[in-house]
Amino acid sequence: MKFNADFIVSGKKYDFSACVIFYKEFETEKKIKSAYLTATSLGNYEARINSKRVSDYVLAPGWTQVAKRLQYQTYDVTNMLKKKNKLEIEVGNGWYRGGIAALRPGQEDLPVAVAAELLIEYEDGTAEKITTDETWKTKRSNILYSDCYNGETWDFNYVDRRAVPCKKIKWDKKILIPQEGEKICEHERIRPSLITAANGDKILDFGQNMTGYVKISVNAKKGDRYVLECAEILDKDGNFFNGNYRSAKARMEFICKDGLNVFKPKFTFFGFRYLRLTECPKGGIDPDNFEGICVYSDIKKTGYLNCSNEKLNKLFDNIFWGQKDNYLDVPTDCPQRDERKGWTGDAQVFAHAASFNFDVLKFFKKWMHDVSAASMDGRVPKLVPARWEDASVLDEGLLSNSSAWGDAILICPWQMYLTYGDTEILKDNFDTMKGWVDYMGRVTKDKYMFTGHFQFGDWLGLDAPEGSLAGSTRKDFIGTAFYAYSTSLLIKIGKILSHDMKEYEKLYKNIKKQFIKAFGENYETQTECALALYFDLTADKKKTAERLASLVRDCGMHLMTGFVGTPYLLHALSENGYQDIAYSLLLREEFPSWLYSVNAGATTIWEHWDGQKTDGSLWYSTTGQCVDMNSFNHYAYGAVADWVYGYAAGIKRCEEAPGFEKAVIEPHPDKRLGHLTASVETRRGKISSKWSYTNDGIRYDITTPCETEIILGDKHYHVEAGDYIFYER
Predict the structure, then answer these.
(1) 3-state class of 696 per DSSP?
(2) Phi, psi angles (nearest 5°) of residue 563
(3) What average pLDDT does the segment 584-593 reach?
(4) What is the pLDDT of residue 103?
């Protein structure tokens, strides 16, 4: 049945940051056969019947391109109804109206709203529908303040006894869609330890940088006040530090009633490892009263990585945590500061690893629909959900889209197709894919290149002055390389969907020809070499690979790449004769490296290779302030996991038989690791590759659920599903 309820708002204007409860009281006289509640909101909502939550869904209805797409949810509430009932829907600003929404002038009074219908079927064959209308009432919640960035303030003593009638508003019901993505819910629960900082602050340490909030259960006196603030790190002196949160206050505050008080935020979330008890009653603090609750989309873990190097195992663990923490309905860049948005560039560089680590097809199908909905005139936004301003400002600085960000419209669906074999995600977004490729050709200053357009560059690349945000890789090089790569993907996708792609095949040949003509073999940076090799844009792979290896050696045997180059660096080296260097970069522990942050105590992936330096000081930008941009929970560099799965362990997908209908397993061991195991739960079953060094040589243990080509050096084995052991002496 089509959900067609009217949207209602309160007849009273409440404080902008206060939460509102919409409610309806009703009676049921007959025996109930079934009852289903369908609801959505402008704002985030929690629905309750007779004071009990109808679902464990957190932050419903989720985050979408709300002007064009708004999810609704349906809940089975058959066993919740009594003779006398009260249906409540509490609403907070959330993503819709809080600081994260970046409201434009004139939108400050935008009201929260709900639309709901409760369909009750009785055993006698009759039915009743209770839907949102003017008979509903509102009152102010005891959540006096709620904002995604700043947190929540509760007063357990506050009761609003003034019922206010509701009124209907006109809202386009064509944008309503049933739940598409995974629900958001609570997951791991972590108990903290209590530490005392050097300056005397009482701090709770949860031992893990996480996304979510804290549940607090305390016996208190009326008027007792708790104020807690979040942080990811301690400074070099061991004191609480959250300057990198920028304007986000990330604060939980509640005023107690007499007796037991249970506080848990409803319409916000935080990224944190530490909580400072900025204010609390005297008499001591019991850490057993506090419980950290991890909140993210309900994605199933499918990947596994383990090896003989415990520091590398910790890196793998950090990669998994970083993905969970940032896969909260959209693939956010970070969960802590005044950002937490769906950056398209971060999403695409990690998409391959993401699809092995967790089952994210449903997650990405929903988000890619939003990417397409947010795109305009061929332009793919740098972040989604997005609020497009006037088109004339889109090319001004950070308001613009960019190569490697806009290309997410092709790269993300392509990675999902290879891992899951799903063609629907290709079909649904094909027009937007084509629009992006056409856009690059339309706005470029040079034919068959992508030049003269705003570019983020090799974001945070190290081959530029310290503190700057873009590396030294030429921006027109990046633009044209991704123009070629996206065009090549568009051709593959178009053919899968039975489109005539001759026009784009000709375009691709011209782009590649012009790329080689413009840049030749004059590659200046590691990222330039990596892109030219991985995207097959160099006329002399051997020479380009030699250049890349030389650049790595010449700088002291370490990487210099940023967000754009890092995902391809180890692939470009290992697939072109320099496996030893690729492994050396993976295993390097000194700055800059993946293991540098592990040695520094990281529990997630950092935004900067040197987010916190060896002396405990912090990365500084050109402004001279670490608060400019320094997240300790950015998953992008965790893309190295796809090299571990795909090259080191050798689990490869087949373009001609996606979704592991067929597979290739071609492991590449290195004696610096005694053993390595990687596995993925695919749609067809578990695929696993393990190699281990023994006294006699190397043993390979391989499990496959499908027809597979196993390649061990120069030996090839074509096998069916099963378990296999091989020895290399």
Answers:
(1) coil
(2) -60, -35
(3) 97
(4) 72
Per-residue model confidence as pLDDT tens digits over 39-73: 999 999 999 999 999 999 999 999 999 989 999 99
Residue 45 contacts residue 61 (beta carbons within 8 Å): yes
Whole-number pLDDT of residue 624 = 60
Cβ proximity of 534 and 545 under 8 Å: no
Give the H or E element holding residue 542.
Answer: helix 541-554
Band (392; pLDDT cuts 50, 70, 90): very low
Per-residue confidence (pLDDT) for residue 627, from 0 to 100? 67
Q: How many Cα atoms within 13 Å fall on the side-chain side of residue 552?
A: 31
pLDDT band at 388; cut points 50, 70, 90: very low
Residue 242, judged by CB atoms within 10 A of its CB (0-12, 13-18, 19+), counts as: buried
Q: Report the alpha-carbon distance of residue 137 to residue 141 in Å, rounded.
A: 13
What is the pLDDT at residue 391?
Answer: 36
| H or E stretch covering 432 | helix 424-443
d(CA 514, CA 520): 9
pLDDT band of residue 305 (cuts 50, 70, 90) is very high
* Residue-wise pLDDT tens digits, 526-553: 999 999 999 999 999 999 999 999 999 9
Q: How far apart are CA 708 and CA 721, in angstroms?
A: 7
3-state secondary structure (DSSP) of residue 219: strand
User: For the packed helices 566-574 and 541-554, what is the interaxial angle rounded to 10 degrees?
Assistant: 120
Q: Are 334 and 607 in contact (CB under 8 A)?
A: yes
**Other Cβ atoms closer than 10 A to 650:** 23
Helix then strand count (H, E) for the chain reads: 14, 37
Residue type (1 letter), 344: T
Q: Which DSSP state fits 178?
A: E
Task: Show which residues are catalytic.
Answer: 339, 607
Q: What value does the mean pLDDT take over residues 700-729?
A: 97
Q: Which residues does 555 contact at the CB level (< 8 Å), separation at least 6?
A: none
Dihedrals phi, psi of 21, to nearest 5 degrees? -105, 120
Q: Which residues, including other chains, have CB under 8 Å from residue 70's CB and lie 6 or more apart?
A: 40, 42, 61, 64, 175, 176, 177
Q: Cα dist. 236→60, 196, 467, 611, 618 in Å?
A: 39, 15, 19, 12, 9
The CA distance from 494 to 510, in Å, is 18
Are the C-beta atoms of 95 and 44 separated by less than 8 Å?
yes
d(CA 622, CA 57): 42
What percent of the chain has a predicted confidence (pLDDT) above 70? 96
Pairing of strands 202-220, 675-682: unpaired
Rounded CA-CA distance 206/190 in Å is 6
* Beta carbons within 10 angstroms of residue 211's beta carbon: 27
Q: Give the Cα separation of 88 and 52 in Å (integer).
A: 9
* Through-space distance between the first and last CA atoms of the chain, rounded to whole angstroms: 65
Kindly state the tokens that stand for 682: 């695919």
DSSP secondary structure letters along 299-357:
PEE-EEEEES-HHHHHHHHHHHHHHHHHEESEE-S-SSSS----BHHHHHHHHHHHHHH
Taken in order 369, 371, 377, 380, is the CA torsion positive or negative?
negative
| Contact assessment for residue 297 and residue 323, using Cβ atoms and an 8 Å cutoff | no
Asked if residue 398 has pLDDT above 90, the reply is: no
- The pLDDT assigned to 25 comes to 97
Three-class SS of residue 513? Answer: helix
- Average pLDDT taken over every residue of the chain: 94
Rg (CA), the chain: 27
d(CA 301, CA 359): 6
Least confident of 137-146, 386-395, 571-580, 716-725: 386-395
Neighbours of 377 (CB within 10 A): 12
Average pLDDT over residues 179-205: 97
CB neighbour list of residue 332: distance below 8 Å, 6 or more residues apart: 326, 339, 340, 341, 342, 343
Q: Is the pLDDT of residue 394 over 60?
A: no
